[in-house]
Write a structure and sequence with these properties.
Elements lengths: L1 H31 L4 H8 L10 H17 L8 H12 L3 H17 L3 H15 L5 H17 L3 H18 L2 H18 L2 H15 L4 H17 L3 H14 L3 H14 L2 H11 L5 H17 L3 H60 L1 H62 L6 H14 L1 H7 L4 H11 L4 H7 L4 H16 L5 H13 L1
């Protein structure tokens, strides 16, 4: 009897120890998933088919595994794992994990080219992230949203998200993330042809670059090379590109190196780069490389190879056409299935109506009952319609009232601004009534402004509001009984205080005006 009791106790201890080890594994994985995603993939992969996990553990496992895969630069083809996690966290009101699950579900949908659903999921994650105060998650979220907008060429939104990602990376004090985001911003400005901005963000990354390795350092070197090429320092640019290729070859680096070879007249080396770029995963890069190859082969008189690469270029074009055609076929099949479903539903409705008619003929009682029921349903429907129209009318009135208030607010703002300009021209300081009216109108137009300026004193708030209304520093100085230099110093200080960045008064003006536009 004693032996049996010992065995039972041992089984219970082993079982509890196993559960505790499993929980500790997930806890450890969650602690390092943001900074060591490769390690998390290795930790969690052996548990892929673990059937002993509870529902909560399965949900957390699905999130952590998918998150680690994505942060490692890889992708998962199916969304079943993360979708189960998302549904669990949504059901249990776990907003922190739900926001992360929504983001990674959106990434998978985006890879599946379900763009509308993907963007909706990512934007839901962004909305939830505002209340979480998780800068490590914010960095990845804003980086992904920046990449998505970069893919469609919306560079204004791209830069906005990348700058939000930069702020999050600096809050976490992660040098790798900071340099990676600075690289993204610099590359975007390079695409826009803004050389000075490219240089600025390269210089921001320079103090941290020596401690960074891998793809991030390679991209940093490519950005440096691109800037040097724009300033005519081709030899130094070539050195940077050669170093970056040794670390991690990139299509952009290969293309820049090919451009240098063309400038040097080294057509053979340039052609070697183009040969490499013909295998790029980007169809645009591959097509451009094929075109340049064909052009130079024709110039060299090598018509045979030119014809071969022209044929391969046609195959790339054909591949793009085939993919579009396949998408069209999928759409057509979906439409066909929907039409078939509608036809089945129509036949079912007709059959049901026939049965109802037959039953009505057989039994007057059933017909009478059915008629009364229909009348009641119609009455409910009419009542619902009436309520709908009433609600719609009320919403219309509310919208019109809001528009009237906005117009009145705008007119009052113009009058107040005009009055303040007049006061400044006469050398009079701002009256308390005018200051209060300016603040009330500004906060009514943009409630976010009230929250942003809530930490400032009255004079600092007034400087911000006057700057937004395009008052000159001399006018602001007059209205606030200050000197122009004091106003300039205040603007520089407010740039750091409100936006966490260093810069001049002009940068503050642009930043505070941009907040008022958002």
């Amino acid at each position: 009897m004693r032996n049996i009791l010992c065995i039972i106790i041992l089984i219970i201890i082993v079982g509890c120890s196993h559960e505790q080890t499993h929980n500790e594994l997930l806890t450890h994985a969650e602690q390092i998933v943001f900074t060591q995603p490769d390690s998390v993939v290795g930790l969690l992969s052996p548990s892929w088919n673990d059937s002993t996990m509870s529902e909560a553990d399965c949900a957390l496992y699905g999130l952590l595994y998918t998150e680690a895969i994505h942060r490692s630069g890889l992708y998962i083809g199916t969304d079943s794992l993360i979708n189960a996690s998302k549904e669990y966290f949504e059901r249990h009101g776990d907003d922190e994990h739900l926001a992360r699950a929504l983001l990674h579900h959106g990434i998978i949908l985006y890879q599946q080219q379900k763009t509308r659903e993907a963007i909706l999921s990512m934007k839901q994650a962004e909305q939830m992230a505002r209340d979480l105060n998780e800068p490590a998650f914010d960095w990845y979220l804003f980086s992904v949203l920046g990449d998505v907008n970069d893919n469609v060429g919306d560079y204004t939104t791209t830069l906005r998200y990348y700058k939000q990602a930069l702020k999050a990376a600096q809050l976490v004090d992660n040098e790798q993330w900071t340099v990676q985001t600075l690289n993204n911003i610099a590359t975007t400005f390079d695409v826009l042809g803004e050389k000075d901005s490219l240089k600025y963000y390269i210089e921001q990354a320079r103090p941290l670059a020596d401690s960074i390795e891998g793809d991030v350092r390679a991209n940093y070197l490519v950005n440096n090379a691109s800037y040097l090429m724009k300033t005519g320092e081709t030899d130094e640019a070539k050195r940077f590109l050669t170093e970056s290729m040794m670390i991690s070859p990139t299509d952009r680096g290969d293309k820049l190196l090919a451009d240098i070879y063309v400038q040097e007249g080294d057509t053979a080396s340039a052609m070697l780069q183009w040969y490499k770029l013909t295998t790029s995963l980007s169809p645009d890069v591959a097509i451009q490389s094929y075109q340049l190859l064909v052009e130079y082969l024709n110039l060299l008189g090598d018509t045979e190879n030119a014809a071969i690469y022209s044929q391969r270029l046609n195959e790339v074009y054909r591949g793009l056409y085939d993919r579009r055609d396949a998408a069209g076929i999928v759409d057509m099949m979906t439409q066909f299935d929907e039409q078939a479903k509608e036809r089945r539903q129509y036949r079912t409705v007709i059959s049901l109506l026939g049965a109802i008619i037959f039953l009505m003929i057989i039994s007057a009682l059933i017909a009478w009952y059915s008629r009364r029921r229909i009348d009641r349903l119609n009455a409910r429907f009419a009542e619902s319609q009436q309520q709908y129209h009433l609600t719609r009318s009320e919403l219309t009135q509310v919208r019109r009232q809001k528009e009237r208030e906005q117009r009145e607010n705008s007119l009052q703002m113009k009058e107040t601004v005009s009055r303040l300009h007049a006061s400044a021209n006469k050398g009079k300081p701002i009256a308390d009534e005018d200051a209060n009216e300016l603040a009330q109108l500004s906060f009514a137009q943009n409630p976010k402004l009230r929250e942003l300026l809530s930490t400032l004193n009255a004079k600092e708030q007034l400087v911000c509001l006057l700057t937004i209304q395009n008052f000159l520093p001399t006018e602001i100085a007059t209205l606030t009984i200050s000197t122009p230099q004091a106003i300039t110093n205040t603007r520089v200080r407010l740039l750091k205080k409100l936006f966490g960045v260093a810069g001049g008064a002009k940068e503050f003006d642009n930043a505070i005006k941009q907040v008022n536009k958002d």
